[in-house]
Amino acid sequence: MDADVARWVLEYILRQPLDDRTLNNLLRVLPIPNDNARLKKSMLLRRIESEIIKKGSIPEKLLGFLERIEELDYQEGIETCDSMKHAYCSVAVDCTVRFLDEREEYFDAVKRIWRGRVWKMERSERAVGLVCDELRGWRDDIEAAVWDPSVCENVRVKSRGNGVLEAVRVYVDEAWKSAGPSFLEAVAGTVSEDTMREVLGQGGIGDRVGGDSTRDSIVSEKDKESRRGGVLPRQKHVAMKHPRGATIGTSRGVKITDTEELDLRKLSNYYECLPSPEINEVQEALRTSVAELQAVVKDPLPEALRLAENVMSCMGGQNMNQESSGRGQNGKNVDAANPSVGTSPEAALANEANCDNQRSGHQNDVPKPSLMARNGTACTFEWDDSVDSLPEGSADHASRLHLSTPNRRLVSPLKKYQTPKISRRRKVKKWSPLEEDTLRTGVQKLGMGNWKVILNAYREIFEERTEVDLKDKWRNMTRY
DNA sequence: ATAGGGATATTG
DNA sequence: CAATATCCCTAT
């Protein structure tokens, strides 16, 4: 599967009300691009959601999740929103004051959270967005409470109205909202059902030119609201079956158009231009991978589990966790670590409860879904090691099915969609005379065929060129 | 990493 | 539309 497509699919399923187990299995199987901030953030958000739904109490690791999100935001120049600051503070407080009754543990928590995390943030090189007055205020109180029993009581009282769950929920909702819909959903809302059918079917297109051609990309409020609403089977054919009325003319939808390179624009201008191969390519990609995805989404538990596990049983175990250190891994490492991918089911995840439980034994009956096609720039991701250890069919499990039911989320895709690079082909860039000269001297000095050496030697001049480009250019220059 | 063939974009 | 330039994919 193409890396972009994989990313779209991931973005999509992260927003689906799938339970953790299913999601986890899917994540295990999909190639995860390691370089996409948006995606990472979605994962973290989803994990936070999962955590706050799971148990009554807030786990301390939410602090870590929030910190990572903040860092991602920072790198993208996104300012930390108030709800996030508040959520972080609330979690920190909650995870500390819960130990107020045990001096030892309380002190440990203070050291861990306030003298550890918070302290680090405060003296970080950059201004960490999570640090705010509220946090500092609490820090002082909580520190004082370590030594002073009377302050201790104050803290206890003050923390009663903390409302962690609410705070976190508010933030998560806001974050999803500003992230906008997943690409697949955006596209689904962009193209009418008829168009989709035509393109996905045989592609009889020309006869529709004209008419309602000035339409913009639209995602209807209705669709957005139902996005994560309730238990699944509703929106099975998300990408293809949008009731025309809901998506197009009638809705007071929101534009998603201000995205420079994003081909959503082209998709939305579908009626105006002749279909470019590029669009066809996108839609073909969507067709195939969405079809695969639908098999999972429409009937999540049985279907997805079966798919995911069948796939898993065909693969070697891949327990790389991209989240923890993020950058350390790439496709090569994964492949190197698992030379037996696809051949040795017994090597796979031997210690994973879910795998053992549900493996149906005949991995060869099922054709290898292309979902698992691996990509050189991707690695696998372990959603959460704790979920798998939970007993199957427990109350916990059942409750997680309703994961997203409470959050009704109004998505306004006003925010720019972080452009996935659909155009797999770079823009054509004519060679300048300088470049040509440089190439000539490069070949003369460093030897023809040593394209990489030449490229490195004149990196500033060969801007945006690859060694293959040099090679091709030389081929052109020396023809005849 | 490189070469070669093929796809796509650009030019005339 | 053909010729050419650039870019991409794949086998070696």
UniProtKB/TrEMBL annotation:
In terms of PANTHER family, this protein maps to: MYB TRANSCRIPTION FACTOR
**Transmembrane region positions?**
none
Question: Would you tell me the protein name for this molecule?
Answer: Uncharacterized protein
Entry keywords, A to Z = Nucleus
Where is it localised?
Nucleus
Output the Gene Ontology cellular-component terms: nucleus
SUPFAM superfamilies found in the cross-reference section: Homeodomain-like (SSF46689)
Q: Matching Pfam families, A to Z? A: Myb_DNA-binding
